[in-house]
Amino acid sequence: MEALRKTSFLLGVLLLLSVAATLADAKVHFHDFVVQAAKVKRLCKTHNTITVNGQYPGPTLEVNDGDTLVVNVVNRARYNVTIHWHGIRQLRTGWADGPEFVTQCPIGPGGSYTYRFTIQGQEGTLWWHAHSSWLRATVYGALIIHPKEGASYPFAKPKRETPILLGEWWDANPIDVVREATRTGAAPNVSDAYTINGQPGDLYNCSSKDTVIVPIDSGETHLLRVINAALNQELFFTVANHRFTVVGADASYLKPFTTSVIMLGPGQTTDVLISGDQLPARYYMAARAYQSAQGAPFDNTTTTAILEYKSAPCPAKGISSNPVMPALPAFNDTATVTAFTRSFRSLKKVEVPTVVDESLFFTVGLGLFSCPKNFHPSRCQGPNGTRFTASMNNFSFVLPSTFSILQAHKQGVPGVFTTDFPANPPVQFDYTGNVSRSLWQPVPATKVYKLKFGSRVQLVLQGTNIQTAENHPIHIHGYDFYILATGFGNFNSRTDTAKFNLIDPPMRNTIGVPVNGWAVIRFVADNPGAWLMHCHLDVHITWGLAMVFLVENGVGELQSLQPPPADLPPC
Ligand code: C2O
């Protein structure tokens, strides 16, 4: 009896200690983000670039799963701004998600707002970026989530870790570029360079001496956390003579597989291991466009950084001091993209909802508006005197301008949006065939699709061949989803269901819907709030390739959105 009492006392102490340890483990990280113009010189020219804390790219945030981030954003720039934490679930904290006029009104010049949220059950590489106009061209940084204190990676701990942020640089003010495109209705100018960690690299003018160097030692393993932060371009990425072992994407682990090249759409991240198993020398890492839209102009340049063996003799016998240049796939190599993305499997068996409450089918694609009568021809410089547009289910999404959707929803403000976004395309047609001109003009609207808390959603994303078919990286805020299958042509609900992976489908927050093809995803609507879903090519958001899921509260506090923070920017 006495022994038993002693044991239970000891057990009690142990329990208390472990609770205390867990509590002590979860940290709160405070950061100040001052959005401000800073002089940045690239491609021989200095620009007044909008940055965070004068840094380009912005600061890397590192946390452990379970930690809380408190980021006070102060706007000292002359533009409105918001910050989005791309891929963070924001469970019950939708007010901290960031997309302007969806979850908050923007932070005006001189204003500030504190984003406060906890990372719950996520590990890997994510990132943060501005979510207002095209500010994210330069306002972005990595957000790295390590396993909980004491927990480990599902692979041998690499000797080093380096975030690799792929970006896009305009030799102009990106805000002017999008304003001009919005005025003319034409496609915006393409970028002048791609960048790796903010630097274009050796192949561009005035860039050599600032080329990014990534060190490696013979025999060691290095984790590269690759992030596509480019505004409008899907990118291939490779390293000369080295192979990648892909271990994760969008902060979800994958069954490891090897490849020599990866492709990321804007918004996507991919964690790869490389080993220092080659001759000690210098090797280029390089990125260039994957351009699936035929005939559309794109930036056809190549950005490089250098993987440098620390033991590399300088210049070694027989080894040239010029880094080895890798071969990159052709810009339109869709076969390589398909082979790569079809290798994705979740690391573990997962629980995919097998019953579906909401079966949705959304078309995603471009369109053309004929020139409105009151418009001067200079405002209709799209193909044949039209204006470019884009849509989901034939609705071209228009952001509200006086209220955010989430605030309007919570305060019951009428007239900001309607809840009649259709579950299916208003007209069925041969989406990937020769689409009749009469179907090229969508309807501008601010429509949301309501979801009951906990509903199990299946969504078919169907690309269209309107104007130009292309691969669209579709991102959903506030959610990760399982990718059951992808394919080309029109989705066939009778035969294509046989292709569904219900065992170990990959989980992501951004899916590349194949050019002239489809993707099927599933998720459970367990996070109340207003969640933007959009193409992560920013030019397509500008044109309206977006919609919003409005997820209702469930039962009780733990299934309800928290009240809005007191400093939420006024509209
Ligand atoms: Cu990277 Cu709307 O997000």
Overview of this protein structure:
With 571 residues, the protein is mostly beta strands. The protein contains 5 helices and 32 strands. It has a 6-stranded mixed β-sheet, with no helix packed on it. Helix 4 links the parallel strand 22 (395-397) and strand 23. The longest helix is centred in the first third of the chain and has 24 residues, at 2-25. The protein binds CU-O-CU linkage (C2O). Its cofactor is Cu cation. Keywords: Apoplast, Copper, Glycoprotein, Lignin degradation, Metal-binding, Oxidoreductase, Repeat, Secreted, Signal. It is an enzyme of class 1 (oxidoreductase).
Whole-angstrom Rg: 24 Å
Distance between the termini: 67 Å
CATH fold naming of the largest domain: Immunoglobulin-like
Number of strands: 32
- As laid out across the biggest beta sheet, the strand order is 10-9-12-17-14-15
Tally of contiguous helical segments:
5
- Second rung of CATH, namely the architecture of the largest domain: Sandwich
Largest sheet: 6 strands, mixed
Q: How many structural domains in the coordinates?
A: 3
Distinct ligands: CU-O-CU linkage
Set down the secondary structure blueprint.
Blueprint: H1 2-25, E1 28-42, E2 45-52, E3 61-64, E4 68-75, E5 83-86, E6 112-118, E7 124-130, E8 140-146, E9 160-169, H2 174-184, E10 193-196, E11 213-216, E12 221-228, E13 234-239, E14 244-249, E15 252-259, E16 261-264, E17 269-275, E18 282-290, E19 302-309, H3 334-341, E20 358-370, E21 386-392, E22 395-397, H4 405-411, E23 443-445, E24 448-451, E25 456-463, E26 472-476, E27 481-488, E28 507-508, E29 510-513, E30 517-524, E31 529-535, H5 538-543, E32 546-551
Parallel strand pairs: 1-4, 3-8, 9-12, 11-19, 20-25, 22-23, 24-32
Antiparallel strand pairs: 1-2, 4-6, 5-7, 7-8, 9-10, 12-17, 13-16, 13-18, 14-15, 14-17, 18-19, 20-21, 25-30, 26-29, 26-31, 27-28, 27-30, 31-32
Bound molecules: CU-O-CU linkage.
CU-O-CU linkage is lined by residues 84, 86, 99, 129, 131, 267, 475, 477, 532, 534, 536.
